[in-house]
């Protein structure tokens, strides 16, 4: 039995979009790559770097915030960043269901405070803080780290840049996500162990075929490399 250090990936819901449950472990800073318009109840799709097919589809309230802050031309949103989090107090009807909310935005001159409808006939003051451009750069460095040592260095630099607990929490959340991406998954490690124990290349090739249906492409590439290192090219 393998020891699992980070359980957050196991609670990410199966969905075609960024989901509040995905943010239970902490906020996420996303950088917009493009914006597309759709029909139906979710008319705006915000694609972001590394979204893995799970773009952000903001609700009406958050769309109002984004248009107020960044303007109505979605083409101009590309390259800008936002910090999103799970707000457990969001209601659907009478039920508390939680929802994705925006806490910080880049490319705004100052914090924004605006009164927005939260339920029929009821408004509430909503505040979005200005994300310092330095924060966006530090988070980008964390996300771009190519190995564990580079990741630790990028996080250390970000951590030293501020004493504010909310900013440090955002850096830590991105550090944890990138660390999970860089470290081999438990399943991949199990396949590597089985491959190393395989009696011959034929047995190992059976493992490779099985892994093609269970591992993610980057993990499968690692397993193919392990096969090649031991038996030659597959």
Discrete helix count: 7
Strand content: 15-25%
Total DSSP E strands:
8
What is the residue-mean pLDDT, rounded to a whole number? 86
**Helix and strand element order:** EEHEEEEEEHHHHHH
What general outline do the C-alpha atoms trace?
elongated
Radius of gyration: 21 Å
Secondary-structure class: alpha+beta
> Any idea how many domains?
3
Order of strands across the widest beta sheet? 2-1-3-6-8-7
Binned, the helix content reads 25-40%
Q: What is the CA-CA span between the terminal residues?
A: 29 Å
Mind explaining what this structure looks like?
This protein has 234 residues and is α+β, with helices and mostly antiparallel strands. The protein folds into 3 domains: 124 residues, no CATH class; 49 residues; 46 residues. Helices cover 39% and strands 21% of the residues. The chain has a 6-stranded mixed sheet with strand order 2-1-3-6-8-7. Helix 2 runs antiparallel to helix 3, helix 5 packs antiparallel against helix 6 and helix 5 packs parallel to helix 7. The chain is elongated, with a radius of gyration of 21 Å. The relative contact order is 0.11. The model has no long low-confidence stretch (mean pLDDT 86).
